[in-house]
Protein backbone atom coordinates (compact mmCIF):
# COMPACT_ATOMS: atom_id res chain seq x y z
CA UNK A 1 0.00 0.00 0.00
CA UNK A 2 2.89 2.37 0.78
CA UNK A 3 4.40 1.67 -2.63
CA UNK A 4 1.04 2.26 -4.31
CA UNK A 5 0.59 5.70 -2.78
CA UNK A 6 4.23 6.56 -3.53
CA UNK A 7 3.70 5.71 -7.20
CA UNK A 8 0.61 7.88 -7.35
CA UNK A 9 2.40 10.83 -5.74
CA UNK A 10 5.48 10.56 -7.98
CA UNK A 11 3.33 10.51 -11.10
CA UNK A 12 1.18 13.36 -9.78
CA UNK A 13 4.38 15.38 -9.42
CA UNK A 14 5.24 14.63 -13.05
CA UNK A 15 1.83 15.96 -14.04
CA UNK A 16 2.36 19.16 -12.10
CA UNK A 17 5.81 19.98 -13.48
CA UNK A 18 5.00 18.87 -17.03
CA UNK A 19 8.13 16.78 -17.61
CA UNK A 20 6.01 13.96 -19.01
CA UNK A 21 5.40 16.15 -22.06
CA UNK A 22 9.08 15.87 -23.12
CA UNK A 23 8.60 19.31 -24.65
CA UNK A 24 11.11 20.68 -27.16
CA UNK A 25 10.83 24.26 -28.37
CA UNK A 26 12.73 25.91 -31.21
CA UNK A 27 11.85 29.59 -31.39
CA UNK A 28 11.54 31.35 -34.71
CA UNK A 29 14.91 32.33 -36.16
CA UNK A 30 15.12 34.27 -39.44
CA UNK A 31 18.88 33.67 -39.56
CA UNK A 32 18.80 29.89 -39.08
CA UNK A 33 20.75 27.75 -41.53
CA UNK A 34 20.08 26.50 -44.09
CA UNK A 35 16.84 28.54 -44.14
CA UNK A 36 14.80 30.78 -41.83
CA UNK A 37 12.95 28.74 -39.19
CA UNK A 38 9.41 29.29 -37.90
CA UNK A 39 8.48 28.69 -34.27
CA UNK A 40 8.41 24.89 -33.87
CA UNK A 41 7.11 23.07 -30.80
CA UNK A 42 7.11 19.35 -30.20
CA UNK A 43 5.52 17.61 -27.21
CA UNK A 44 3.77 14.38 -26.31
CA UNK A 45 -0.02 14.15 -26.19
CA UNK A 46 -2.31 11.60 -24.49
CA UNK A 47 -2.82 8.54 -26.67
CA UNK A 48 -6.41 8.04 -25.48
CA UNK A 49 -8.18 5.44 -23.32
CA UNK A 50 -5.84 2.76 -21.94
CA UNK A 51 -6.79 -0.80 -21.00
CA UNK A 52 -4.87 -2.15 -18.01
CA UNK A 53 -4.88 -5.90 -17.33
CA UNK A 54 -4.25 -5.93 -13.58
CA UNK A 55 -1.65 -8.26 -12.07
CA UNK A 56 -2.18 -10.83 -9.33
CA UNK A 57 0.99 -10.68 -7.27
CA UNK A 58 0.71 -7.07 -6.04
CA UNK A 59 -3.02 -6.54 -5.33
CA UNK A 60 -2.40 -2.84 -4.69
CA UNK A 61 0.77 -1.71 -6.48
CA UNK A 62 0.26 -3.60 -9.78
CA UNK A 63 -3.51 -3.68 -9.86
CA UNK A 64 -6.42 -1.26 -10.11
CA UNK A 65 -4.56 1.81 -8.79
CA UNK A 66 -1.09 0.52 -9.61
CA UNK A 67 1.71 1.94 -11.70
CA UNK A 68 0.16 1.34 -15.12
CA UNK A 69 -3.10 3.00 -14.13
CA UNK A 70 -1.33 5.87 -12.39
CA UNK A 71 1.01 6.61 -15.30
CA UNK A 72 -1.85 6.64 -17.80
CA UNK A 73 -3.99 8.93 -15.65
CA UNK A 74 -1.04 11.23 -15.00
CA UNK A 75 -0.66 12.04 -18.69
CA UNK A 76 -4.36 12.51 -19.34
CA UNK A 77 -5.49 9.07 -20.51
CA UNK A 78 -8.73 7.57 -19.16
CA UNK A 79 -8.25 3.99 -17.92
CA UNK A 80 -10.29 0.82 -18.08
CA UNK A 81 -8.95 -1.81 -15.67
CA UNK A 82 -9.63 -5.47 -16.27
CA UNK A 83 -9.69 -6.81 -12.71
CA UNK A 84 -7.60 -9.84 -11.80
CA UNK A 85 -9.72 -12.77 -10.56
CA UNK A 86 -7.28 -13.35 -7.70
CA UNK A 87 -8.61 -10.37 -5.72
CA UNK A 88 -12.01 -9.32 -7.12
CA UNK A 89 -13.47 -7.77 -3.97
CA UNK A 90 -10.38 -5.67 -3.31
CA UNK A 91 -10.41 -4.57 -6.96
CA UNK A 92 -13.97 -3.30 -6.63
CA UNK A 93 -13.21 -1.43 -3.42
CA UNK A 94 -10.09 0.22 -4.83
CA UNK A 95 -11.87 1.12 -8.07
CA UNK A 96 -14.72 2.77 -6.16
CA UNK A 97 -12.34 4.74 -3.93
CA UNK A 98 -10.09 5.82 -6.81
CA UNK A 99 -13.02 6.79 -9.04
CA UNK A 100 -14.53 8.90 -6.28
CA UNK A 101 -11.19 10.62 -5.67
CA UNK A 102 -10.82 11.44 -9.36
CA UNK A 103 -14.30 12.94 -9.52
CA UNK A 104 -13.60 14.95 -6.35
CA UNK A 105 -10.47 16.28 -8.09
CA UNK A 106 -12.59 17.55 -10.96
CA UNK A 107 -12.14 14.79 -13.53
CA UNK A 108 -15.17 13.47 -15.43
CA UNK A 109 -17.08 10.45 -14.19
CA UNK A 110 -15.85 7.33 -15.92
CA UNK A 111 -12.22 8.46 -16.05
CA UNK A 112 -11.43 5.16 -14.30
CA UNK A 113 -13.63 2.14 -14.94
CA UNK A 114 -13.47 -1.51 -13.89
CA UNK A 115 -14.46 -4.58 -15.88
CA UNK A 116 -14.24 -8.25 -14.93
CA UNK A 117 -13.87 -11.51 -16.83
CA UNK A 118 -11.62 -12.77 -19.62
CA UNK A 119 -14.25 -12.31 -22.34
CA UNK A 120 -14.88 -8.72 -21.29
CA UNK A 121 -11.14 -8.05 -21.29
CA UNK A 122 -10.66 -9.41 -24.80
CA UNK A 123 -13.69 -7.52 -26.09
CA UNK A 124 -12.33 -4.31 -24.63
CA UNK A 125 -8.87 -4.96 -26.12
CA UNK A 126 -10.52 -5.19 -29.54
CA UNK A 127 -12.68 -2.09 -28.99
CA UNK A 128 -11.57 0.71 -31.34
CA UNK A 129 -11.91 3.26 -28.55
CA UNK A 130 -9.02 1.66 -26.64
CA UNK A 131 -5.75 3.20 -27.84
CA UNK A 132 -3.16 1.29 -25.77
CA UNK A 133 -3.01 -1.69 -23.42
CA UNK A 134 -0.83 -2.81 -20.52
CA UNK A 135 -0.32 -6.22 -18.95
CA UNK A 136 1.76 -7.77 -16.19
CA UNK A 137 1.94 -11.55 -16.13
CA UNK A 138 3.18 -14.64 -17.88
CA UNK A 139 4.98 -14.67 -21.21
CA UNK A 140 2.36 -16.97 -22.71
CA UNK A 141 -0.60 -14.77 -21.75
CA UNK A 142 1.26 -11.60 -22.68
CA UNK A 143 2.11 -12.85 -26.15
CA UNK A 144 -1.50 -13.85 -26.71
CA UNK A 145 -2.77 -10.40 -25.74
CA UNK A 146 -0.05 -8.69 -27.78
CA UNK A 147 -1.17 -10.69 -30.82
CA UNK A 148 -4.76 -9.58 -30.25
CA UNK A 149 -3.66 -5.94 -30.05
CA UNK A 150 -1.58 -6.30 -33.22
CA UNK A 151 -4.36 -8.07 -35.13
CA UNK A 152 -6.81 -5.18 -34.79
CA UNK A 153 -7.67 -3.25 -37.97
CA UNK A 154 -5.90 -0.39 -36.20
CA UNK A 155 -3.08 -2.02 -34.19
CA UNK A 156 -2.33 -0.37 -30.85
CA UNK A 157 0.72 -0.27 -28.56
CA UNK A 158 0.88 -3.11 -26.05
CA UNK A 159 3.12 -2.68 -23.02
CA UNK A 160 3.87 -6.00 -21.34
CA UNK A 161 5.86 -6.76 -18.21
CA UNK A 162 6.20 -10.45 -18.89
CA UNK A 163 7.73 -13.51 -17.27
CA UNK A 164 11.49 -13.32 -16.76
CA UNK A 165 14.22 -15.54 -15.36
CA UNK A 166 16.17 -12.45 -14.25
CA UNK A 167 19.61 -13.99 -14.79
CA UNK A 168 22.42 -13.55 -12.30
CA UNK A 169 26.02 -13.97 -13.44
CA UNK A 170 28.67 -14.63 -10.81
CA UNK A 171 32.23 -14.43 -12.11
CA UNK A 172 34.96 -16.76 -10.92
CA UNK A 173 36.68 -13.96 -9.04
CA UNK A 174 33.48 -12.88 -7.30
CA UNK A 175 32.73 -16.44 -6.20
CA UNK A 176 36.26 -16.88 -4.88
CA UNK A 177 36.30 -13.58 -2.99
CA UNK A 178 32.86 -13.51 -1.38
CA UNK A 179 30.99 -16.65 -2.41
CA UNK A 180 29.27 -17.20 0.94
CA UNK A 181 27.95 -13.64 1.09
CA UNK A 182 26.64 -13.94 -2.45
CA UNK A 183 24.99 -17.28 -1.64
CA UNK A 184 23.21 -15.85 1.40
CA UNK A 185 21.98 -12.84 -0.53
CA UNK A 186 20.81 -15.05 -3.40
CA UNK A 187 18.56 -17.08 -1.11
CA UNK A 188 17.13 -13.92 0.44
CA UNK A 189 16.37 -12.44 -2.98
CA UNK A 190 14.88 -15.63 -4.44
CA UNK A 191 12.81 -16.46 -1.36
CA UNK A 192 11.43 -13.04 -0.45
CA UNK A 193 7.61 -12.96 -0.63
CA UNK A 194 7.82 -16.65 -1.57
CA UNK A 195 9.44 -15.67 -4.85
CA UNK A 196 6.23 -14.05 -6.07
CA UNK A 197 8.06 -11.07 -7.55
CA UNK A 198 8.47 -10.45 -11.27
CA UNK A 199 12.12 -9.59 -10.65
CA UNK A 200 13.11 -12.59 -8.51
CA UNK A 201 16.37 -14.24 -9.66
CA UNK A 202 15.65 -17.50 -11.47
CA UNK A 203 18.81 -18.61 -13.29
CA UNK A 204 22.25 -18.12 -11.76
CA UNK A 205 25.43 -18.68 -13.76
CA UNK A 206 28.04 -19.74 -11.21
CA UNK A 207 31.49 -21.37 -11.46
CA UNK A 208 31.56 -25.16 -11.22
CA UNK A 209 33.12 -26.35 -7.99
CA UNK A 210 31.87 -23.28 -6.12
CA UNK A 211 31.59 -25.22 -2.87
CA UNK A 212 28.53 -23.29 -1.72
CA UNK A 213 25.96 -26.09 -1.50
CA UNK A 214 26.10 -26.25 2.30
CA UNK A 215 25.69 -22.49 2.70
CA UNK A 216 22.80 -22.38 0.25
CA UNK A 217 21.05 -25.32 1.93
CA UNK A 218 21.47 -23.80 5.38
CA UNK A 219 20.18 -20.40 4.30
CA UNK A 220 17.22 -21.90 2.44
CA UNK A 221 16.39 -24.16 5.37
CA UNK A 222 16.17 -21.17 7.68
CA UNK A 223 13.42 -19.51 5.62
CA UNK A 224 10.01 -19.82 7.25
CA UNK A 225 7.13 -21.27 5.21
CA UNK A 226 5.25 -18.62 3.27
CA UNK A 227 1.83 -18.85 1.62
CA UNK A 228 1.21 -18.21 -2.05
CA UNK A 229 -1.28 -15.58 -3.09
CA UNK A 230 -3.80 -17.82 -4.80
CA UNK A 231 -4.41 -21.34 -6.04
CA UNK A 232 -3.46 -20.53 -9.63
CA UNK A 233 -0.02 -19.24 -8.62
CA UNK A 234 0.51 -22.24 -6.32
CA UNK A 235 -0.46 -24.67 -9.07
CA UNK A 236 1.83 -22.98 -11.57
CA UNK A 237 4.74 -23.03 -9.14
CA UNK A 238 4.25 -26.69 -8.26
CA UNK A 239 4.19 -27.67 -11.94
CA UNK A 240 7.16 -25.53 -12.96
CA UNK A 241 9.26 -26.70 -10.02
CA UNK A 242 8.46 -30.36 -10.67
CA UNK A 243 9.31 -30.06 -14.37
CA UNK A 244 12.65 -28.39 -13.65
CA UNK A 245 13.91 -30.81 -11.02
CA UNK A 246 12.89 -33.80 -13.17
CA UNK A 247 15.37 -32.87 -15.93
CA UNK A 248 18.36 -35.17 -16.30
CA UNK A 249 21.40 -33.83 -14.52
CA UNK A 250 19.54 -31.50 -12.16
CA UNK A 251 20.37 -31.98 -8.49
CA UNK A 252 18.69 -30.49 -5.45
CA UNK A 253 20.84 -28.25 -3.28
CA UNK A 254 17.89 -27.30 -1.08
CA UNK A 255 14.73 -29.32 -1.70
CA UNK A 256 12.31 -26.88 -0.17
CA UNK A 257 8.60 -27.40 0.16
CA UNK A 258 6.19 -27.41 -2.75
CA UNK A 259 2.60 -26.24 -2.23
CA UNK A 260 0.33 -29.12 -1.26
CA UNK A 261 -3.05 -29.59 0.37
CA UNK A 262 -4.95 -26.86 2.15
CA UNK A 263 -1.82 -25.25 3.56
CA UNK A 264 -0.14 -24.40 0.27
CA UNK A 265 2.83 -22.77 1.98
CA UNK A 266 6.27 -23.08 0.42
CA UNK A 267 9.95 -22.83 1.27
CA UNK A 268 12.74 -22.12 -1.23
CA UNK A 269 14.06 -24.73 -3.62
CA UNK A 270 17.60 -24.31 -4.94
CA UNK A 271 18.60 -26.67 -7.75
CA UNK A 272 21.82 -26.98 -9.73
CA UNK A 273 22.86 -28.33 -13.12
CA UNK A 274 26.06 -28.50 -15.12
CA UNK A 275 26.20 -26.11 -18.07
CA UNK A 276 26.35 -28.98 -20.59
CA UNK A 277 23.18 -30.56 -19.16
CA UNK A 278 21.46 -27.17 -19.02
CA UNK A 279 22.12 -26.54 -22.69
CA UNK A 280 21.13 -30.10 -23.63
CA UNK A 281 17.76 -29.57 -21.94
CA UNK A 282 17.07 -26.64 -24.30
CA UNK A 283 13.92 -24.72 -23.31
CA UNK A 284 12.81 -26.90 -20.40
CA UNK A 285 15.06 -25.13 -17.90
CA UNK A 286 14.83 -21.66 -19.40
CA UNK A 287 11.26 -20.84 -18.40
CA UNK A 288 10.35 -18.74 -15.39
CA UNK A 289 9.31 -20.78 -12.34
CA UNK A 290 7.22 -18.20 -10.51
CA UNK A 291 7.90 -18.83 -6.85
CA UNK A 292 10.85 -19.40 -4.49
CA UNK A 293 12.99 -21.33 -6.98
CA UNK A 294 16.47 -20.68 -8.32
CA UNK A 295 18.55 -22.79 -10.69
CA UNK A 296 22.33 -22.69 -10.48
CA UNK A 297 23.95 -23.31 -13.87
CA UNK A 298 27.51 -24.37 -13.14
CA UNK A 299 29.94 -23.32 -15.86
CA UNK A 300 33.51 -24.62 -16.26
CA UNK A 301 36.57 -22.48 -15.61
CA UNK A 302 37.49 -20.17 -18.45
CA UNK A 303 33.96 -19.94 -19.88
CA UNK A 304 33.30 -16.86 -22.02
CA UNK A 305 30.45 -15.46 -19.93
CA UNK A 306 29.44 -12.80 -22.44
CA UNK A 307 29.04 -15.43 -25.16
CA UNK A 308 27.16 -17.71 -22.77
CA UNK A 309 24.76 -14.93 -21.78
CA UNK A 310 24.25 -13.97 -25.43
CA UNK A 311 23.14 -17.45 -26.43
CA UNK A 312 21.13 -18.16 -23.28
CA UNK A 313 19.03 -15.07 -22.57
CA UNK A 314 16.74 -13.05 -24.82
CA UNK A 315 14.35 -10.58 -23.22
CA UNK A 316 14.52 -10.20 -19.42
CA UNK A 317 13.24 -7.68 -16.91
CA UNK A 318 16.55 -7.61 -15.07
CA UNK A 319 20.06 -9.03 -15.19
CA UNK A 320 22.59 -8.95 -12.37
CA UNK A 321 26.35 -9.44 -12.47
CA UNK A 322 28.64 -9.98 -9.51
CA UNK A 323 32.26 -9.07 -10.15
CA UNK A 324 35.48 -9.45 -8.24
CA UNK A 325 37.26 -6.51 -6.66
CA UNK A 326 38.45 -4.15 -9.40
CA UNK A 327 37.27 -6.62 -12.06
CA UNK A 328 36.85 -3.96 -14.72
CA UNK A 329 38.57 -5.67 -17.63
CA UNK A 330 37.28 -6.03 -21.17
CA UNK A 331 35.52 -9.31 -20.41
CA UNK A 332 33.46 -7.70 -17.64
CA UNK A 333 32.56 -4.75 -19.86
CA UNK A 334 31.49 -7.06 -22.68
CA UNK A 335 29.38 -9.14 -20.29
CA UNK A 336 27.57 -6.03 -19.06
CA UNK A 337 27.06 -4.83 -22.64
CA UNK A 338 25.50 -8.17 -23.60
CA UNK A 339 23.23 -8.18 -20.57
CA UNK A 340 22.18 -4.56 -21.17
CA UNK A 341 21.01 -5.52 -24.66
CA UNK A 342 18.80 -8.25 -23.20
CA UNK A 343 17.40 -6.77 -20.00
CA UNK A 344 15.51 -3.67 -19.00
CA UNK A 345 17.66 -3.14 -15.92
CA UNK A 346 21.23 -4.26 -15.21
CA UNK A 347 22.59 -4.40 -11.66
CA UNK A 348 26.24 -4.72 -10.68
CA UNK A 349 27.03 -6.34 -7.33
CA UNK A 350 23.36 -6.03 -6.37
CA UNK A 351 20.11 -8.01 -6.51
CA UNK A 352 17.03 -7.36 -8.65
CA UNK A 353 14.35 -7.52 -5.96
CA UNK A 354 13.52 -4.50 -3.81
CA UNK A 355 12.72 -2.21 -6.75
CA UNK A 356 12.99 1.50 -6.03
CA UNK A 357 10.06 3.69 -7.04
CA UNK A 358 11.80 6.55 -8.81
CA UNK A 359 11.99 8.32 -12.17
CA UNK A 360 15.15 6.50 -13.27
CA UNK A 361 13.75 3.05 -12.53
CA UNK A 362 13.17 0.80 -15.53
From TrEMBL:
GO MF annotation: an example: oxidoreductase activity, acting on the aldehyde or oxo group of donors, NAD or NADP as acceptor
UniProt-listed SUPFAM superfamilies: ALDH-like
Keyword Oxidoreductase: yes
Residues annotated as domain Aldehyde dehydrogenase: 39-208
Keyword annotations: Oxidoreductase
Keyword rRNA-binding in annotation: no
Annotated Pfam families: Aldedh
InterPro entries for the chain: Ald_DH/histidinol_DH, Ald_DH_C, Ald_DH_N, Aldehyde_DH_dom, Aldehyde_DH_Superfamily
Protein's name according to its UniProt entry: Aldehyde dehydrogenase family protein
Amino acid sequence: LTRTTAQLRILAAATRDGRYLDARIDHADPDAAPAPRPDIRRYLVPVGPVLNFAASNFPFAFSVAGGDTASALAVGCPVVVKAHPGHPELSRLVAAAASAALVDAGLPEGTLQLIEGEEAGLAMLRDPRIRAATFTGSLRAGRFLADVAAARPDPIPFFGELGSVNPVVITERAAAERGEDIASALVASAAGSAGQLCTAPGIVLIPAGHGLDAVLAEEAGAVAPHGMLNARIAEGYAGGRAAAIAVDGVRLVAEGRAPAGDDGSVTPTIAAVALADFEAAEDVLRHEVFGPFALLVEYPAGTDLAALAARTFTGELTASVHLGTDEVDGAAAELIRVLAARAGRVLVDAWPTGVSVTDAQQ
